[in-house]
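Today's session is about reading a structure prediction critically. Students often jump straight to the picture, but the first step is always the sequence itself: look for stretches that repeat, for charged clusters, for runs of hydrophobic residues. Only then move on to the predicted structure, which in these notes is written as discrete structure tokens rather than atom positions. Here is the chain we will use throughout the hour.
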Amino acid sequence: MAVCAAKANAVLPSATPHDAPAGMRPCLKCKGCENLDLHFWRKVCINCSCKEADHAAAQETAKVLDLEGLEDGAVAKRKQQLMNPAQDTRPPRDTGSLSKDILDRFNTLSALREERKRMVQKFQGAPCTACSKATTKDNGVKALGKTYHAGCFACFKCKNELPMAFYEDNGEPYCMRCFGEQHFPRCMGCEELIFHKEYTKATMPSGKEMTFCLDHFCCVGCDTPLAEKQFIEGPEGDDVFCLPCYDSKLAPKCATCHENVTTDQPLMQAGALAFHGTPECFKCADCGVPLHEVGGAVADGKLLCPEHSRRGKTCSGCGEGLDGECINAGGAMYHKKCFVCSKCNTFTGSMGMKDSKLICKECA
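Below is the predicted structure for this chain, in token form.
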């Protein structure tokens, strides 16, 4: 469980509210939220924690009273909202207090966007650059000197299908969102482009870098500023949590004692199961022997020592009962002497499967 620390001159988030949308906006993702209630600067719903774009647009409310199914057209519209965020076309919200150079950066991006805006053209007769299949008058388009199926023409960065209008950067097509991110960092908190010279950059254990407005580098769970504090990456990879919030809301539960394995406790994992890394918890579910030294295997949803994990099972090679030293390969158990290539009858240490039989690399 990797925990990070970041340094930044963060201050408490300002309480500038979003523009309140009119009408009910139920969530189309979790289907348990009846109306969008925006966090005061994050673009997430306070009621269900889903993103604003996961909720019905105000003008669509009358059409989505039955949320059991979401029409393909509505899914496409929601994706377009993410690719072409409205906030990218507006000056930063607090323009009254911004310096001239920040406004100049926004205006520079706006002018560059207009300069690089391109339109696809209907085209047919040449193979699609993406899939190499033939195009027709009904599905062929031409952009940047290349031919595509309309469904194959996608943003170079996010790979989402592009509409008729797109933006060119270094000879590649981008949606509005990704084009903006080519020139300015985006805050992972408020999802708006950062035009200030100073901002926070945090590197996750996965190697992913996140950027934040100085006052938006906060815990998703409680809004506590995380500058000079330890934090941990959320399960979806685009959120950060303080350690107390992670421990209480997201920490894995120990399969033995059913208590959370907090960030200050050793964690052991076996398959999809998590355990406190102590002899009292990381042990065989049948005999209770600690497994730190002898190892174990998950069988029937339980962590078992080597002896009990093979109890009642037969060798996938000879069909006889398992005893002595055994090998687990892809969920199948073998006597060590039976774990050999089905063609050359030798053990090479690296085996694969072909037609449900073991086979070495040389015979494959």
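Discussion point for the tutorial: The longest strand covers residues 165-169.
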